[in-house]
Design a protein that fits this description.
Blueprint: H1 9-37, H2 40-44, H3 52-59, H4 63-75, E1 80-82, E2 87-89, H5 92-95, H6 108-118, H7 121-130, H8 142-153, H9 158-162, H10 169-175, E3 178-182, H11 188-196, E4 201-206, H12 209-222, E5 227-231, H13 237-240, E6 246-252, H14 261-271, E7 272-283, H15 289-292, H16 298-315, H17 326-337, E8 341-345, E9 353-359
Parallel strand pairs: 3-4, 3-6, 4-5, 6-7
Antiparallel strand pairs: 1-2, 7-9, 8-9
Helix pairs in contact: 1-6, 3-4, 6-8, 14-17
Length: about 350
């Protein structure tokens, strides 16, 4: 029911200004993605004030495109421009969040999601009209971007913050246990674990042909013999899972994308040994929109959810939980899967995720 009230001109003007700012920043995200992919931020971080030609030559890129990109960077407040010399400079304070040297602080990695999601806008529009979903294989480069994302959010803190969430886990891995990563993507995480703990055996499963191909190629290049990957649809994992085979099972931002998430969780419960541990990373929503309004990147997460996580699940005739299913719903699903011993952790440097340490 519409509330009858006088039109607030100042509010309208403020909203218009905010929308213009949003459109500018939305456009800028594409340029940030390109700058990351072609190495321009990395190149400029090693240079003083330089011309577009010098920057292009150092980066081995076409000058005309670099010059237009620099126009977006300057007007977007990312790069400093000296008009008297027509030179450009990336301040170190900005480079700290835009270069590969920045490690886990490199926000340019996340800008890539805008371009990936933009590829399927037409299909998403049709889903709004007719329902259904967009299948995973339509998202070109998604597993590549996701691997780079998890490389920052998980790999960078794997030894320092994540493994210590489970007391005694490192010691068990050193002695040798069986580990399963469900929804392993391109396998960077378990390949890292396999390199650290040679006596343990690691298995990764995923339904993406491209991701598994990349994982196998990476494993072969590294010469790992204690890790292997399997291409598998997990919709019936509650039936297909082996009985109490694994000492440690992990999922990294993977359950909410599944067509049948409860079946996957029940399969994990079935496959986990009685004294085993299930380590689960999920997006740190709350299951309540009014609380999610407080999340610093909630609009970004809901957008990624609508244009990838939710629709990929619906394309499998699934539930479409979405990335922001939240802690409350997550706990309910874990309980329904049979888990009763659940601890929730939030890492101080990670604004995006919650970490669950789960036992039978």
């Amino acid at each position: 029911m519409r509330v009858d009230q006088e039109f607030d001109t100042s509010r309208a003007q403020a909203f218009e200004n905010a929308l213009v700012d949003t459109m500018n920043k939305s456009a800028l995200s594409f340029m940030i993605s390109i700058g990351h992919r072609v190495g321009l931020f990395d190149t400029m971080s090693q240079m003083d004030f330089a011309s577009s030609m010098d920057i292009a030559e150092r980066a081995r890129l076409d000058e005309r495109y670099v010059r237009e990109w620099l126009g977006a960077m300057v007007t977007g407040g990312i790069v400093i421009y000296a008009p008297e010399t027509r030179t450009y400079y990336l301040p170190p304070e900005h480079a700290a969040y835009l270069t590969r040297q920045a490690g886990s602080d490199n926000l340019a990695v996340f800008a890539q999601y805008s371009a990936v999601m933009g590829q399927v806008e037409n299909q998403i529009v049709e889903c709004f009209k007719h329902g259904g979903g967009v299948p995973y294989e339509e998202f070109h480069r998604f597993h590549e971007v996701m691997a780079e994302d998890s490389g920052q959010s998980v790999l960078a803190s794997l030894e320092s913050h994540i493994l210590p969430l489970v007391p005694g886990l490192r010691e068990r891995l050193e002695k040798g246990i069986h580990v399963l990563d469900v929804g392993c993507g391109s396998g960077k995480i378990i390949n890292r674990l396999a390199s650290l703990f040679h006596k343990s055996h690691f298995t990764g499963i995923d339904f993406s042909t491209d991701a598994i191909a990349d994982a196998n190629a990476q494993t072969a290049a590294l010469g790992r013999e204690n890790v292997h990957f399997k291409l598998k649809d997990l919709s019936d994992f509650h039936h297909d899972a082996p009985e109490e085979k694994y000492d440690l099972i992990t999922t990294f931002d993977a359950i909410h994308d599944q067509g049948k998430p409860l079946n996957v969780l029940r399969g994990i419960h079935k496959a986990l040994k009685k004294d085993g541990v299930y380590l689960m990373q999920e997006i740190g929503g709350t299951s309540h929109l009014e609380e999610d309004m407080k999340h610093p990147i909630a609009p970004f997460l809901y957008t990624v959810s609508c244009m990838h996580c939710m629709t990929v699940s619906l394309a499998q005739h699934g539930e479409g939980l979405g990335a922001m299913w939240g802690e409350e719903v997550t706990m309910d699903y874990l309980n329904r899967a049979g888990f009763t011993n659940i601890q929730t952790h939030k890492l101080p440097h990670d604004i995006q995720n919650l970490w669950y340490v789960i036992r039978k």
